[in-house]
């Protein structure tokens, strides 16, 4: 029981989304060591964690879309494997499948948090910096406890059976719905940027960027920035010279 | 040059250090689909705005709203943007003619490219190499593995973040002065608008990954709607969602309501198998 509570707390700290969690606990190599420590087998935990980590060697989070969840795979994979005395090979198989389920914790975290910027907007309207910071730091930790800490405690306490049960409890259409939410919500952020950046005389460049990306499947933003910069340069070069002369004269007055 | 009103408020190195620390610890705390790291950016720059405008609360409010915009970059290398932004805000507070749009355009056009660079260096080069070395130790049961990894990553993370902000601040301070004296500012604003809007067009396809999932069978022939759409305008759905949200916000609908509508649309559409 106490060990399961500790695993739950470890899962919370691991997913608290700051550098201490990322580098001290996130990587299966690190998580395996801590879980091993909780169960009094640090060396075994470390070896299992390292084996799981090899499967996630190329894992890289960009823009919040991941194939499998690194957090739960290492932490819960090791917790389940140590308790059931699995071989490291078995542990890796279990860990990867846990990671697939664990992705929903990530999607939930990002989705529930999507309410927070709107609350921060209200504080911004009042110029309340402290309020923005509090909303930045506190509520999301409750979300982490809910979607990470509690499931980790249950998984450590009841073992692998509960993990299958958790997945079976959610209907397929519910999962499909939630998967879609994360793919749609960034539209709000892009729309807000567009509101501030759109100049009627330059809106064609937004369309151009979209067209290039949509028809050619090119979504490398660095390449896009180079092309955009080149177009910006050309556009400015083609402007009539008198504009800048006027600006200079005004400056000298 | 036009008459400048010197407010006399200058940032100290300590302000930059504290901003660095805030960003380092808070960047992802409320990470979310709606605006990614915006809250982290606002938390980073909030106290700076208060310091720059001790007796102009309306300017602090404008600044906070400006920095609650959608923001997403690699938190370490991308922090160059934070340094440049702090420098621009400082110059603006000192009375330089820097528009709000310039600051937003600059942030938006740089965040993607720097994320590309940062993700490659941090995620595809540094971390896998360090991890490979440490996994070698760990798999033999040596505690050197986790120890070296933790120190190596924490040290790298903080050092690069701090360096990026400092360099960006220096660059912003010197570059802004040079540009303003050369009367280039109007040109540069247009330049960044074009670059920013072009990149934003690509972001529609990159970040909004929803697609049409509807299929139907007519007279024994399967019709996949996605294929039909793709032949006319691929990614039409992300574009439509963006335009509709944009027009709604422009018409004065509150962002939270737009968000809730999209949330419901996605949940129901996904559950019914119309979109995926």
TrEMBL record, chain A:
Where in the cell does this protein reside?
A: Cell membrane
The Gene Ontology CC terms held by the record are:
plasma membrane
Record flagged with keyword Transmembrane helix = yes
Q: Name one GO biological process term.
A: phosphoenolpyruvate-dependent sugar phosphotransferase system
Q: How does it sit in the membrane?
A: Multi-pass membrane protein
Q: What is its main location?
A: membrane
Native organism taxonomy: Bacteria, Bacillati, Bacillota, Negativicutes, Selenomonadales
Kindly list the residue ranges recorded as spanning the membrane.
Answer: 92-112, 133-158, 170-194, 203-236
Q: Which InterPro entries match?
A: GatZ_KbaZ_carbometab (IPR050303), PTS_IIC_man (IPR004700)
UniProt name for this protein? Phosphotransferase system PTS sorbose-specific IIC subunit
Q: Which GO terms describe its molecular function?
A: transferase activity
Keywords in alphabetical order: Cell membrane, Membrane, Phosphotransferase system, Sugar transport, Transferase, Transmembrane, Transmembrane helix, Transport
Q: Which organism is it from?
A: Pelosinus fermentans B4
TrEMBL record, chain B:
Keywords for this protein: Cell membrane, Membrane, Phosphotransferase system, Sugar transport, Transmembrane, Transmembrane helix, Transport
Gene Ontology BP annotations: phosphoenolpyruvate-dependent sugar phosphotransferase system
Membrane topology category:
Multi-pass membrane protein
| Localisation | Cell membrane
**Per the UniProt record, which residue ranges are transmembrane?**
129-156, 191-220, 255-275
The record's annotation in Pfam families points to: EIID-AGA
Q: What's the main place this protein lives?
A: membrane
Family matches, as InterPro entries: GatZ_KbaZ_carbometab, PTS_IID_man
User: Which cellular component appears as one GO term in the record?
Assistant: plasma membrane
Q: Which PANTHER family match?
A: N-ACETYLGALACTOSAMINE PERMEASE II COMPONENT-RELATED, N-ACETYLGALACTOSAMINE PERMEASE IID COMPONENT-RELATED
Q: What is this protein called?
A: PTS system mannose/fructose/sorbose family IID component
Q: Which organism does this record belong to? A: Pelosinus fermentans B4
């Amino acid at each position: 029981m106490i060990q399961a509570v500790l695993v739950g707390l470890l899962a919370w700290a691991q997913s608290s989304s700051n550098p201490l969690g990322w580098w001290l606990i996130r990587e299966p190599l690190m998580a395996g060591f801590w879980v091993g420590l909780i169960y009094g087998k640090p060396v075994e935990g470390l070896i299992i964690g390292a084996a799981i980590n090899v499967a996630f060697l190329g894992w890289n989070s960009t823009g919040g879309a991941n194939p499998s969840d690194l957090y739960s795979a290492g932490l819960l994979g090791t917790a389940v494997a140590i308790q059931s005395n699995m071989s490291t090979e078995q542990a890796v198989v279990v860990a990867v499948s846990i990671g697939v389920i664990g992705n929903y914790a990530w999607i939930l975290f990002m989705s529930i948090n999507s309410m927070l910027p709107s609350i921060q907007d209200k504080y911004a309207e009042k110029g309340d910096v402290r309020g923005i910071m509090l909303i930045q730091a506190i509520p999301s930790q409750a979300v982490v406890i809910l979607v990470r800490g509690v499931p980790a405690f249950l998984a450590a306490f009841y073992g692998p059976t509960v993990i299958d049960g958790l997945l079976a409890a959610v209907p397929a259409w519910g999962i499909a719905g939630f998967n879609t939410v994360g793919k749609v919500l960034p539209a709000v952020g892009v729309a807000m940027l567009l509101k501030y950046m759109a100049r009627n005389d330059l809106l064609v460049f937004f369309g151009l960027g979209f067209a290039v990306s949509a028809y050619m499947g090119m979504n490398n933003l660095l390449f896009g920035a180079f092309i955009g910069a080149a177009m910006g340069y050309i556009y400015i070069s083609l402007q009539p010279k008198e504009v800048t002369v006027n600006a200079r004269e005004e400056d000298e007055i | 040059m036009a008459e400048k009103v010197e407010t006399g408020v200058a940032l100290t190195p300590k302000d930059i250090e504290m901003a660095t620390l805030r960003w380092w610890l808070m960047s992802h705390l409320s990470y979310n689909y709606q605006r990614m790291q915006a809250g982290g950016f606002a938390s980073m720059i909030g106290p700076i705005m208060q310091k720059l405008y001790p007796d102009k609360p309306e300017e602090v409010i404008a600044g906070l709203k400006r920095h609650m915009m959608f923001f997403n970059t690699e938190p370490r290398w991308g922090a160059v943007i934070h340094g440049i932004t702090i420098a621009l805000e400082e110059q603006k507070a000192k009375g330089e003619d820097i528009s709000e749009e310039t600051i937003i355009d600059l942030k938006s056009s740089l965040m993607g490219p720097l994320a590309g660079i940062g993700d490659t260096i941090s995620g595809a080069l540094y971390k896998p190499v360090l991890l490979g070395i440490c996994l070698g130790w760990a798999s033999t049961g040596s505690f050197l593995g986790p120890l070296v990894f933790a120190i190596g990553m924490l040290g790298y993370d903080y050092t690069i973040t701090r360096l990026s902000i400092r360099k960006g601040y220096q660059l912003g301070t010197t570059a802004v002065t040079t540009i303003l004296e050369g009367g280039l500012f109007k040109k540069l604003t247009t330049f960044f608008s074009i670059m920013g809007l072009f990149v934003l067009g690509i972001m529609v396809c990159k970040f909004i990954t929803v697609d049409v999932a509807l299929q139907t069978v007519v007279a024994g022939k399967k019709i996949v709607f996605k294929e039909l759409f793709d032949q006319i305008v691929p990614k039409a759905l992300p574009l439509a969602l963006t335009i509709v949200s944009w027009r709604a916000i422009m018409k004065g609908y509150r962002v939270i309501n737009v968000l809730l509508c999209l949330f419901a649309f996605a949940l129901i559409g996904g559950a019914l198998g119309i979109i995926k």
